[in-house]
Amino acid sequence: MNIGALIKKLRTEHGFSQEELGAMLGVQRAAVQKWESGAVKNLKRDTLKKLSEIFNVPPSSFIAEDYMNYDNVISFPKMNRIPLVGTIACGSPILASENIDGEVTVPEEINADFALRCKGDSMIDARINNGDIVYIRQQPTVENGEIAAVLIDEEATLKRVYLSDNTITLVACNPKYQPFVYTGEQLNQIRILGKAVGFTSTLL
After folding, report:
1. Angle at Cα 62 formed by Cα 56 and Cα 64, nearest 5°?
2. CB proximity list for 71: less than 8 A, separation 6 or greater
3. What is the pLDDT of residues 165-182, one digit of tens each?
4. Strand, helix or coil at 183?
5. Which percentage of the chain shows pLDDT scores above 70?
6. Using CA atoms, how far apart are residues 99 and 63, in angstroms rounded to an integer?
């Protein structure tokens, strides 16, 4: 399957019009039409990255001709759109409009309420790298050892959480970082935003 046919198939499966896909990519409908017709063979690097995020497929899918044979693979799952949360505005609810940087798509079987973009290398031993999109199910607590998005003084971080008597310990998945331990009044600085239920790696 060529690149144009793949884009058209994915767009149709996700229920997007050419205008809607163009708007998400920051291009005109005519550009999408040219891609799907095969008039344009090589797409820009930024476009490849955006397409991979929108359709949740590897960027390489849009590079090599006949990369995918749909007779030999499982159909792509149905997708939902969830908000991508950026900097947390002071005191505002996590999904307040001022906190949201955009939307990402996620398979509907992943029960997630919002997504965060991972920063830094503190979670690399969990295979979560800088720039990866992590899907979060909103909930006020998690089981010991689960990875969660945690708000610390209006700064969201991703860590393994361990709860004990009047203590919360946040542990990075990288041995070069020491655990953070919060007790007593320090617990007022901490709020669990939700459990990490999946992530998408950045390949480019």
Report:
1. 135
2. none
3. 889 999 999 999 999 999
4. strand
5. 84
6. 34
| The overall pTM is greater than 0.70 | no
Is residue 160 within 8 A of residue 180, CB to CB? The reply is: no
Residue with tokens 């409908």: 29
Residue ranges per domain, the chain? 3-62, 82-200
CATH code of the domain made up of 3-62: 1.10.260.40
DSSP class of residue 9 equals: H
DSSP letters spanning 51-91: HHHHHTS-GGGGTSTT---TTSSPPPPPEEEEEEE-SPPTT
Residue 62 CA to residue 42 CA, distance in Å, equals: 9
Averaged pLDDT score across all residues of the chain? 82
Closest CA to 136 of 94, 171, 177: 94
Reported as half-sphere exposure (CB side, CA atoms, 13 A), residue 97 has a value of: 0
Contact 6, 64 (CB under 8 A): no
Phi, psi of 166 (to 5 degrees): 55, 30
Handedness of CA 41, 65, 204, 154 (dihedral sign): positive
3-state secondary structure of 198: strand
Domain range 82-200, its CATH number among 3.30.470.10, 2.10.109.10, 3.40.640.10, 2.60.40.10: 2.10.109.10
Best CA proximity match to 130, nearest among 144, 119, 114: 119
Distance CA 153, CA 155 (A): 6
The catalytic site residues sit at 122, 159
